[in-house]
Specification:
By secondary structure, the protein is mainly α. The protein has 13 helices and two strands. It folds into two domains: 87 residues, no CATH class; 111 residues, no CATH class. Strand 1 and strand 2 form a beta hairpin. Helix 2 runs antiparallel to helix 3 and helix 4 runs antiparallel to helix 5. The termini are far apart.
Length: 258
């Protein structure tokens, strides 16, 4: 068996069939087998930017001290990548998939793997024909009311970025549980839950029809009154600020403005 050749059916009778070169390898001039004309993978600008953001995130994680939280710049990078996967992921190919798989592996070794892996699991789901039925979206939905406040707030932020994939009938009860029974993240829960309704009036009506556990009735009623006073747009401000920052990150990467 020649050195470095796979022990599988690609090596038959002394001949090794090398894998097809992807677009990145072809552009780099690497030797290998070219796809047949008409079967080449041609990346969109969205995929190119996604891959650069994903690799920048990976480089930051590899440099990070174990157990130490990454800075907000790294989080904006991952949010930008997640937005691209949400909006353009169905057109991504093997290069993007490889970057995602690497980041999922890197996240597994972190102090909070749930948070570091979730955006990349969601990005991978974005490449599938039906992200809404993926295990990543299912897990995200069920974890929106996570018992740990830091995790809960990050998961709601990821939920905002991919909210069109969430099933409102499943997601909204988790979010209203956050409003009723938690200290931190109640406003975020209001904001994300409200995004599933056509009007603010419909949302407020739905909140009054939902009944929390008996021990949270008073707190929930008080927060419903606060929502009517402050309005839904106030509850969504932080989401919108972070989404704008993520889109600026995409724009800067697309035009190499850094």
């Amino acid at each position: 068996m020649p050195d470095g050749k796979p022990e599988d059916d690609r090596y038959l009778n002394g001949y090794w069939d090398p894998p097809l070169l992807n677009w990145e390898q072809r552009e780099a001039g690497k030797p290998g087998q070219l796809p047949l004309p008409g079967f080449e993978d041609h990346p969109s600008q969205a995929e190119r930017v996604f891959v650069r953001l994903a690799r920048r995130w990976a480089a930051a994680i590899e440099r990070a001290v174990p157990g130490e939280a990454v800075n907000q710049t790294v989080r904006v990078t991952e949010l930008g990548a997640l937005l691209l996967a949400h909006e353009h992921g169905k057109g991504f190919g093997p290069v993007a998939a490889g970057a995602i798989r690497k980041n999922i592996r890197l996240g597994d070794g972190r102090q909070f793997p749930l948070i570091d892996q979730m955006p990349w699991r969601l990005a991978y789901a974005g490449m599938s024909p039906s992200p809404t039925t993926s295990s990543a979206v299912h897990d995200l939905t069920n974890l929106l009311s996570h018992h740990y406040s830091c995790n809960r707030q990050w998961l709601m932020l990821y939920g905002w970025m991919v909210r069109s994939w969430l099933n409102p009938e499943e997601a909204v009860p988790h979010l209203l549980e956050n409003v009723a029974g938690t200290i931190l993240g109640a406003e975020m829960a209001w904001g994300l839950a409200g995004s599933f309704f056509s009007t603010e009036e419909q949302f407020i009506q739905a909140t009054t029809q939902w009944t929390p556990q008996a021990r949270f009735l008073k707190q929930y009623a008080e927060r419903c009154k606060e929502l009517e006073i402050s309005g839904l747009s106030s509850a969504q401000c932080d989401f919108l600020r972070k989404e704008i920052a993520a889109r600026r990150e995409i724009e800067a990467e697309a035009f190499c403005d850094r």
